């Protein structure tokens, strides 16, 4: 049976604006039904504050709720060899710092989220694939020394899409490497999430559960290839905006049914990124996940 948890990213607005501390954020998630927690460094700097990981773990331990994943952005590409190695070393420093959270998995990106669209072609991806797999093999070996499994999320507009993610997952020669399946992010590459989830579940170690509003025509306040506005655009030009789970345009019932029917028993994390109050949006999303799971 999976554990139904929350990524602290879901309430990061209230950490970044100083409304709560990271430790208080952990406690809030525990108090509102999270069975497991993911940490994301938005307003949370484990490198600058060496005691923070221990303090957050202590906050979760009061509720017997594990912190079991840590997700970080990273970019190994479009760099000189020296710059690439510097970025790999930075990720290793996060792996070392995150061990005090007690995590079993860590997600690292490999490509910059805001790379211009013209650099994200399939031709560029295939050229960069050897560098991607080599970096992940290095990091997977390092993470294994801390008993942490390294994960790739379908995130952004380059290392995303079923075919590209599968090529990375099959190309990395390490048993200590797997997939953090984000059920919504595949739509950023215009893959149909309901189908993509079915394709990629065999690789999934953890799941991000989210929902989007989807529009074909400009709804206003939209940016291209960026999330700085309310709406952003997919590679193919669809307009997307985060929503409360179960209230958007993705077929959440079908997605959750697919995950459940597959026998998946890892951690499932709500990743709420809508415009509503983040406490409200996160709580309703988690409640909907648990309710729909019980119904399908």
Write a structural description.
- The longest helix is centred in the middle third of the chain and has 23 residues, at 122-144.
- Helix 5 (122-144) packs across helix 6 (162-171) and helix 7 (193-200) runs parallel beside helix 8 (252-261).
- The protein contains nine helices and eleven strands.
- The chain is an alpha/beta fold.
- The mean pLDDT is 96.
- Strand 3 (67-72), helix 4 and strand 4 (105-108) form a beta-alpha-beta unit.
- It is globular, with a radius of gyration of 18 Å.
- The protein has helices spanning 12-16, 22-31, 52-61, 81-98, 122-144, 162-171, 193-200, 252-261, 278-295, and strands spanning 3-7, 37-39, 67-72, 105-108, 149-153, 177-182, 204-209, 211-215, 232-233, 239-243, 267-270.
């Amino acid at each position: 049976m999976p554990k139904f948890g929350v990524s602290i990213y879901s309430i990061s607005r209230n950490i970044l604006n100083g409304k709560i501390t990271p430790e208080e954020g952990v406690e809030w998630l525990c108090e509102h039904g999270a069975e497991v927690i993911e940490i994301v460094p938005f307003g949370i700097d484990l490198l600058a504050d060496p005691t923070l990981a221990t303090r957050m773990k202590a906050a979760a331990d009061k509720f017997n709720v594990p912190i079991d994943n840590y997700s970080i952005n990273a970019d190994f590409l479009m760099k000189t060899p020296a710059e690439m190695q510097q970025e790999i070393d930075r990720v290793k420093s996060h792996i070392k710092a995150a061990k005090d959270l007690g995590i079993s998995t860590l997600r690292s990106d490999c490509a910059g989220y805001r790379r211009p669209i013209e650099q994200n072609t399939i031709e560029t991806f295939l050229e960069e694939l050897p560098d991607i797999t080599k970096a992940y093999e290095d990091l997977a070996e390092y993470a294994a020394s801390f008993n942490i499994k390294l994960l790739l999320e379908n995130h952004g507009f380059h290392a995303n899409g079923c075919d590209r993610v599968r090529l990375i997952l099959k190309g990395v020669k390490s048993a200590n490497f797997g997939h953090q399946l984000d059920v919504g992010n595949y739509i950023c590459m215009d893959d149909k999430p309901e189908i993509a989830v079915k394709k990629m579940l065999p690789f999934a170690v953890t799941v991000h559960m989210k929902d989007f509003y989807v529009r074909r025509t400009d709804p206003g306040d939209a940016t291209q290839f960026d999330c700085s506005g309310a709406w952003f655009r997919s590679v193919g030009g669809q307009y997307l905006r985060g929503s409360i789970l179960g209230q958007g345009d993705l077929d959440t019932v079908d997605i959750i049914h697919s995950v459940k029917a597959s026998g998946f028993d890892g951690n499932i994390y709500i990743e709420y990124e809508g415009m509503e109050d983040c406490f409200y949006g996160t709580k309703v999303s988690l409640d909907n996940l648990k309710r729909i799971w019980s119904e399908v």
